[in-house]
Description:
Radius of gyration: 17 Å
CATH superfamily: NAD(P)-binding Rossmann-like Domain
Low-confidence stretches: none
CATH topology: Rossmann fold
Number of domains: 1
Number of strands: 7
Largest sheet: 7 strands, parallel
Order of helices and strands: EHEHEHEHEHHEHHEH
Shape: globular
Distance between the termini: 36 Å
Number of helices: 9
Helix content: 40-55%
Amino acid sequence: MTDRRLVDRVAIVTGGGRGLGRAMVLGLARAGARVVATAARERDEVESVAREAAGGRVRPLLADVTNPRDCERLVEIARAELGGVDILVNNAGRGMKYVSERFLDQPLPFWETDLDTWRLIIDTNVNGPFHMARAVVPLMLDQRWGRIVNVSMNHATMRRRGFSPYGPSKAALESETIIWAQDLEGTGITVNALLPGGPTDTGMIPAGVSAGIRGHLLAPDVIVPPLLWLASSASDGVTGKRFDASRWQAGGDADTNAANAVDPAGWT
């Protein structure tokens, strides 16, 4: 459904080819935004999302968020082709399946984690959002308006046994969120964290998970309604918050839903 507050806004969604990223790209495009959807390597995935969105509202691009030059190039393309960037969704991430396919039932001690895998996850989940935000904020400052949404996860998962380095990487992202929100206070740019609110049926879950477990996973599109509110002018002045998408009630008033979705635990 088109949202007049999002019509022709320009959004970048990193990791937009699958899972939560795909759902957010399609949700923004259907609301009227023009979306740059990125993938680090899988061009066919973001091109497929662009075809599904139809209407030419999605521009698929390859860009690796761990490479600062890729991030700068991505923002420059958005500026040159679409006129700027209004919304940045830092969704690209590497999960625990890179550490071990058995991470759900056989936790791997942190000292046994492969060093290259540790660096890959930290570089993608912590440095990647920094590279993207650093590249896009100057444009947002010039226009005195912008939205940065960092995709996070439950605090319990950050503390779960065997969840290094994924848990620590998302804890760092949440620290980035609250610090950046303070740095950008009064500029018209808001920075918030958004999480699905539970295990979600995405590529982060190993293929071998039983049908019984998979049946209890959240659908990726659970994240779309709060994202659309956060990305629009309806959320003007709301910054440094943490939103749980699973608390958003379908068909409810958006502002009431937003108030209910703010994580009461805050940043503690």
